[in-house]
Amino acid sequence: MEAPKIPVEPPKKRRIGVLTSGGDAPGMNGAVRAVVRMAIHSECEAYAVFEGYEGLVNGGNMIRQLHWEDVRGWLSRGGTLIGSARSMAFRERAGRLRAAKNMVLRGIDALVVCSLTGADVFRAEWPGLLSDLVAAGELSKEQVEPYKVLNIVGLVGSIDNDMSGTDATIGCYSSLTRICDAVDDVFDTAFSHQRGFVIEVMGRHCGWLALMSAISTGADWLFIPEMPPKDGWEDDMCATITKNRKEQGKRRTIVIVAEGAQDRQLNKISSSTVKDILTQRLGLDTRTTVLGHTQRGGAACAYDRWLSTLQGVEAVRAVLEMKPDSPSPVITIRENKILRTPLMDAVKLTQDVTAKIKAKEFAAAMAERDAEFKEYYDAYRNTATPNHPKMKLAEDKKMRIAIIHVGAPAGGMNQATRAAVGYCLTRGHTPLAIHNGFPGLCRHHADTPVSSVREVRWLESDSWVNEGGSDIGTNRSLPGEDLEETAKCFEKYKFDALFVIGGFEAFTAVSQLRQAREKFPAFKIPLVVLPATISNNVPGTEYSLGSDTCLNTLIDFCDAIRQSASSSRRLAVYIPEEGINIKMLSQDIDLLRDNFIKDKGANRAGKIILRNETASSTYTTQVIADMIKEEAQGRFESRAAVPGHFQQGGKPSPMDRVRALRMAIKCMQHIESYAGKGRDDIANDPLSAAVIGVKGSQVLFSPMGGETGLEATETDWARRRPKSEFWLELQNVVNILSGRAYPRTDETWTCYEST
Length: 755
Hints:
- Helices cover 41% and strands 16% of the residues.
- It has four domains: 15-168 and 300-352, Rossmann fold (3-Layer(aba) Sandwich), CATH 3.40.50; 172-295, Rossmann fold (3-Layer(aba) Sandwich), CATH 3.40.50.460; 389-546 and 652-724, 3-Layer(aba) Sandwich (Rossmann fold); 547-648, 3-Layer(aba) Sandwich (Rossmann fold).
- α7 (208-217) crosses α22 and α12 crosses α13 (371-383).
- Its cofactor is Mg(2+).
- ATP binds at residues 23, 86-87.
């Protein structure tokens, strides 16, 4: 066959294709938007492949160039706007030959694939595919010469979070949000009628959604494919539920079942089977709810918008940095760090988990899923019920652990307290809640009949599983206002440890107690801070409980404003770390004016400017709005909206719920390590006054005192924040993807690591 006469000239700009394949997931559109705009910013051309690999096979109008304005408004949209399909043609070599030809004809030699199925095979076959196309006369040697190397970078879009080597996949937290909303909605009817509900969630081969929803909703029992229940599980489940209802007084029963749940002989366990057991054996009025595809739909949550954006940006950077012999990476995340992981390694690990489940090697399957998964599973088992006789400690190891909230309310405070109480009761410790902060301790501890210091019962804390705010009360007062009375209370109630949940005030409170140890020996006990504040300004961590709940509330607020104003992107962000000056405002107003002139039709939309409340004392929100309105000269409107305390949110987000459990239990285990030690030995250990936090790809405890402690090296006391804030790097991403005129001059792309 004669080669086509139409010559294919190597494009002046590099062309990067992006496609979504397999099941859709919230956040995919955010990833496509980020890839397109980062490619354009990097002086490349971006091409969308519509309908997944099927579009690559068919070519033609299914491979189209996308421009900057084409992806406007995509960040908040659910599903995938470029379509997805499971292509049977691409699974055959003949289909991949057609795909390779279409890519060469379009001048595309790099793909960002949101879904990994087939990507590794395609790249491995690429040289052979080009040779076959030349041999068959489909293409000439001159045509394929510029495209001898195919670079592929993977993004993982999956609501199941079933890829090994990453903490989260794009879409998984949005799906978890749908599940938690649904289960939260049945709480009231379950409580009212003392009913049981069996909820079936997605997860054919991976139980992440089931496990995290069980943690987030306080489920009584859980079925996941990685860890089937032991033989005789029917009796164990009924015994646990009976104890929770009759001995603890729990009125509602929730059982979470993954769709791939099975017993140890690999026989399917269905939601209807579980329902029949509860009905017939316990006489429990039980209903089943199969959530189905409602788990896939809807707008992406804040985390998935953040994750898809950063991973899309990183994917383009990876494409541009790859060499001919570079292995294809998949962009992953570990804790708070964007990583590049070899694609083949991640795929192999994922396949190994499925193979081990089929081989009934369940412990190995749990271990290979990832360390965090096993940690969450153990945490759930230890807190779902207080009945764990084998977990009880010896009497000399049991402790009286005080729990206090300090600072403004934040989502996750109640869940962290619930987890701490559950763990304490499981181990035999005595959990003591200090109500209404340090003033409550000093002024009302002797009140009768109800003291501000009292033990927490399991049923009381279990009811906090989805409650926002602080049920034991919180305020900003510090122990330094009356250290002597505080020390007397510590001695009176024989506190062996203090667990402080809160924001910068909590950090300051523990600092004051630590520094007063020499004068007041009662403070020579383990003092641990779990950061919980919507401001995310506690030294020693990049993540605070409540910040994700706040972000989701702000996202909902901005989406509502966007609908009202027909706005479709965040144009600018003003933060106190950079301040606001007249030059910044002038450039942003010029950009606004230019965009409104260029916008037409569907793209003629409003814009959003986000301003931190302390970014400037001169340029307030209303002042900026008035300046924009004046400069618009009637061509467009400008209005101000302040969400205020609405940002604290209602029910905590699933991320804040599950991280509260994990971190609270880590804090309890850290406190346990001091059991039986003398007061002076405790005080001499730098980690006896510590903050738990996420730093990069790790969760660790950081000492507060000493020459290298947080107080001396990482705290900006005057501004009440860390000296170094990781998220400042992201300002460049915001500026680039919004088309803002002035990126930061100290551009440092350090938000990833290679593994």
